[in-house]
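Recap from last week: sequence in, structure out.
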Amino acid sequence: MSVPLSFLRSPAPPKQLALGRWVADCLAGSPRITTLLDCLCSTQNPAVFAPDASRRVLTHEHLRSFISNFVLPHSPTHISIGPNDRVLVALPNGPLNAVAMLSIACYHTCAPVNASCTSSELREDVKRLGIKVIVSSKDFIERLELAMLQEELGCDVVLFEARSDGPAGLFDMACLNRRSIFPSQPSQLHAMDDLSLVLQTSGTSGKKKVVPYSLRVLVVGAMAVVHSWALRERDVNREY
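Predicted structure tokens:
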């Protein structure tokens, strides 16, 4: 099926049942949807546009193919990570960031942070969240003191760099200042009850609080937005 979640559009949710509960019940009853990859379309319709209009759009087929083969590299002193291992993402907003978070959340626990944070803030986030890998870009190596954090905290730092041509959002990866080892196959896919996202809130005390989200909660939330906004396959969130 080219649009795997199309079965959640019809029939309309019953009025006496909360939308989120109805979506969750439908997902629980579907043997076809057990991972995030199962939710992704395989059509030629646009999925991601670039701010630069000269760049090719990323189609749903390109996006699904890229994520299905996504595997984080690791250095010789580390081993490959697996489900529910936490990956901190410090990247600027844009197509690359969007594809990176989707790719990571498919196999690991994605922990996005504001890329304008300081090195000390990043250090505290890594410690608080139990991060195994820091993902960033070469533009932030010096400002975030990534090499020093890599040595101090004992975690790998992987740099994501946008490809110079091809569809928007796709990227290449390499470990910072170390040989990159790419596992021969992707990690085990997250199941619906694995944690695919952790966010931090400031909290009333000023101390950050960690809010985890399972893959199931993310899919239910996304479909609730689709229903609430009456979105259709042709609708695309363009970033300009």
